[in-house]
Amino acid sequence: MAVEPFGLRFDEAIQYLRGKLPEASVRWDDLAGPVHGKVFTVAGATTADLARDIQDALVKGLESGQTLTAFRKDFDRIVQERGWSYNGKRGWRTAVIFDTNMRSAHMAGRWAQLQANKEARPFLQYRTAGDARVRKQHRQWDGKVYPVDDPFWSTHYPPNGWGCRCTVRAYSQAEMERKGLSQSEPFQMQTRDVVTRDGEITDRVPVGIDPGWDHNVGKSWITPELALGAKIARLPKELRGPVTDKTVSPAFQTAIEANWKAFQNSGKAAQGDAQILGFLDSAMLDGLETVAAVELRGSAIAATADLANAWPQELTDRVPSLLRDYRAVLWDRQAAQLVVVPDVARPAQGQAQVIRVTPNVKTKYGTAAVVTALEAHSTADLATQRYQVIAGRAPADPGPAPAGPNFERFPAPSASLSSPAPPIFRPKTELFLTPLGQNKRLSFSPAFSLSL
């Protein structure tokens, strides 16, 4: 595989790569594509320290404009120091790590520049490398012109696969006229299912784009929650929960929480803006299937200026994490709301902190489940017929919690929500090592993951 040098240095690309949070990973598809805008992984790098070392070497290379040869020296040193036994031959593995991360960083940085200059140059043209190595579908997109904020660029902004060398060019209206260019016809996107060797459907991506690359690397860096939300919304209903369970990793959760804190301090809430806090997991989605009155139209969880907050600030800052680490989720039949009971200290005897979430609310980012209140509530009331348990365990139910195949219990169950050791439910992701495939063409699923 030929790898081109990346001599161009610009701050946005460096910020993109340096700002990622390193995380351990096993498989190339552990995380959905948009998550890589904030999380750095290399599959098989099973410690965050190892991932961080490789990330630092790439950042150094981007800052200095170094070649693949120089990166390989750093790679060899890291492998020796960490005692890492990786899959694949050294030349192939280092080439893909270097090319993928450098190209993604440059295109993410380029997106930031395009957004900053879109009033002067509001049109983008898709451009391939123009040689025999260009994929058939990518060749069909060559020359297409759309406004910078057209939906086409949410899924088809390069790179669009392993080893993809496509790029974009920006034009002003005057430049369009001088070159005889015009906006292309609306793009009709076709999709395909991603199927494992066992016949399991795990994803759905646009035709012509490799699994894991169906996102805009710039949007995934600047607005990661929106990019992941758009990805999940494109999936068939039965895949939304499982993808959420496995892909909202601890590092990505940290990024979401940091953005939530910044949102609270930005004044955007007072201007009618919204902030995505997370996504309904598989237990919540499965539970809502039992609620006849609800036909869910969006799985993102958001907060707006209308949030009624009776919580202390320290607890409020943790809302994104608490929406995933919960004791129980109930359905309030009277208010038509989800009631999430998080794993936090009780505000008083006989009370529990709860997060009230109203499904199917229109926001500026689309239909979402919106957090409407953070409050303390009577545990006795939560045990009445007004509330239906859809995940976790009923407040007064001493029996085992209904833990499905995607969930596990931490720690042992207790008698009620007012007892000292309630059960906590978290999505459970099983990770498996897979052998390196014989086919080394990068347009096929590699046996490792890189920061996209």
In short:
This protein has 15 helices and 16 strands. With 452 residues, it is an alpha+beta fold. α1 packs antiparallel against α2 (48-64), α2 (48-64) runs antiparallel to α3 and α3 crosses α4.
Summarize the helices and strands and which ones pair or pack:
Layout: H1 11-18, E1 21-22, E2 39-40, H2 48-64, H3 68-82, H4 90-116, E3 123-127, H5 136-141, E4 145-147, H6 152-156, E5 167-171, H7 173-178, E6 191-195, E7 201-206, H8 217-222, H9 224-234, H10 237-247, H11 250-266, E8 274-279, H12 282-288, E9 300-309, H13 313-316, H14 319-322, E10 326-332, E11 337-342, E12 351-363, E13 366-378, H15 379-382, E14 387-392, E15 407-410, E16 424-427
Parallel strand pairs: 1-2, 9-13
Antiparallel strand pairs: 3-4, 3-5, 6-7, 8-9, 10-11, 10-14, 11-12, 12-13, 15-16
Helix pairs in contact: 1-2, 1-4, 2-3, 3-4, 10-12
First and last CA, distance: 18 Å
| Gross morphology | globular
Number of helices: 15
- Regions with pLDDT < 50 over 5+ consecutive residues? 1-8, 397-452
How many strand units? 16
Quick one: biggest sheet?
A: 7 strands, mixed
Structural class: alpha+beta
Q: What's the helical proportion of residues? A: 25-40%
Strand content: 15-25%
Please tell me how large the radius of gyration is. Answer: 23 Å
On the 0 to 100 scale, the average pLDDT is 84
Strand order of the largest sheet: 8-9-13-12-11-10-14
